[in-house]
Write a structure and sequence with these properties.
Layout (H helix, E strand, L loop, with lengths): L1 H27 L3 H19 L6 H18 L9 H19 L12 H4 L9 H11 L3 H12 L4 H8 L3 H40 L3
Length: 211
């Protein structure tokens, strides 16, 4: 059953990419409706992705709009050498970095407890672990954070991540290795803090109860 599920997932991903590729071909032919369809399909995904690099909604929206302006201009240059999602996310990555530079911002600006980060559906964990992982991700270097997001959040291969980030596959592997090591060391600490805070709250509540 697990194998059948994987086959279905792969088939669905292939079908989605073929549909996206058809939209890109239509965009290359000047169809604005197809560009709007791509925008609707990718807007939330790109917003979540860019939120790993900046907490500024205005910068994110600017970068998303710049991304689709480039898609509109360069759709005829897409040759299908990669998945459409890889092509678009690669454009988005470069657009958000440029937007950050233009605004004098840094990709290291994320702070713990930022609402933009907390609003993201974390791909690495669920329920009680999600808060710890989100806080751990904040402590990673931007390149490490993005590599993990692309791999585990968006499902890109190492080769696709290398294409998006314009680096060698070995560099992607190194970034992911160091990110996992850092998270492995951070999560017990963060979990311990959380548990300690919960225990303190319980004890305080008990102290306030009437005898």
């Amino acid at each position: 059953m697990a194998h059948l599920s994987m086959v279905r997932t792969a088939r669905r991903a292939t079908d989605d990419d073929e549909a996206d590729a058809e939209l890109v071909r239509r965009v290359a032919g000047g169809e604005r409706d197809s560009l709007e369809a791509l925008y609707r399909s990718y807007h939330r995904r790109l917003t979540r992705f860019m939120a790993r690099l900046t907490r500024r909604p205005d910068i994110i929206e600017e970068a998303v709009n710049d991304t689709f302006w480039i898609v509109w201009q360069k759709a005829d240059q897409f040759r299908g050498d990669s998945r459409v999602s890889t092509w678009i996310v690669g454009i988005a990555y470069r657009c958000v970095l440029k937007a950050l530079r233009d605004h004098g911002r840094s990709a290291d600006e994320f702070v713990e407890g930022d609402p933009a980060l907390e609003a993201i559906d974390d791909p690495f964990a669920t329920h009680e672990m999600s808060d710890w992982v989100s806080k751990g991700l904040c402590r990673l270097a931007p390149e490490q954070r993005v590599a993990l997001e692309l791999a585990y959040g968006a499902g890109h291969s190492l080769e696709e991540i290398a294409a998006i980030m314009k680096c060698q596959v070995s560099t992607v592997k190194a970034r992911m290795f160091h990110a996992r090591v850092k998270l492995r060391n951070l999560l017990p600490v963060l979990a311990g803090r959380s548990i300690g805070a919960d225990q303190a709250a319980i004890q305080e509540n008990q102290d306030e109860q009437p005898p």
